[in-house]
Model the fold of this input.
Amino acid sequence: MRNLIPWMHLHDDFWKYLIVQLLPPRIGLILLRYTSKYSSDQIAHMADILHHKYSAPSDIRPTVIDVISGRTFVIDSGCSISFIPPTANERRTLAPGKWVKMSQGGGLVKYGQKKLTVDFALGYFMPWNFAIMECTEAVIGADFLAYYDLLISTRRKLTKGRVMPNPSYDSSILKFYRSEKTKYIKKFLRKYLEGHETPSEILSLLRCAIPDEVLNLDLLKRFFLSMLPLSFQQILDSRRTFYSINDLALQADKIYRRIYRRNNRVLYITDRISGMEFLVDSGAYLSQIPRNSNSVLEPIPIYRFVKPNGFPIREYGYKYLIVDLGMKETFPWNFLITNNDIPLIAADFLRHFDLCIDLRRRKLIKGEFVNIPK
Done:
């Protein structure tokens, strides 16, 4: 219609009524009462919202099903913690606790924690302490994703763990640890380690090079600890004599998990053109930017999305931006203007441009998983 009508006349009542008449009847009837107060652009925006509500479009957010419980989890890279809603019994017996602030804005009431073991059909079980929150859906957050090194592809709606390499056995390694030249073993392992592995992942790789029957030699336990951060070594070195190398790895994993829970693992990326810092949020439907404080835009009187705490997300319109996320190309996109305080790169953007989220290495990756360097 913009190609047929001069822009200065597009917001005349006649054209607004015509727009409404061209819409499906049940949407048009709702919008008739707004034609005198709102512009043609806002009426079209309201029509988009109503169409979204009535057509029940497919959920483009990535999800995963736990084989054990049958529960569906939303994979939300923009949420710093993983959580589940309380059961009816937990609502009755657990007292509401502290208010937990969400990265996307707002917050949720926390009831407590529950340890669950989940199976996402990746070939191994994943135990985790999930927060019990006053929410409507279970969420796999950034803490879980970073800890288990899971990559997110919104286009294919799945998660995929990084597979540890399985280097061929090298018998020449044996002479090095027998002569205590562990620097050669370290050089061998450095070919495969990226610096983000958990202690158990490091031990698994060590097993590819050294037979199990000699792994518990004190020399190799000291070598294993030397591959961990200094703070880990200081805690575990006194236990080296009494613990097997497996026990040391398990204890180190507990320390590692505590660090990942304490640190916020969500990913922010700065647009080099506008300077805006976007939260990469696979759990949000549409990419958004906050309304400018000097803007005269009025909020759309109807809404379709809510924040984690159930409050509505108010929409004001769209803004076309070209963003440069430091990935060898720029990305043009129509961003939704909302009352959120934080700019979001959401599932629509990630899906359209086929971007995978790697929280362990804190970056976006373009293209298929097979192209991700190991």
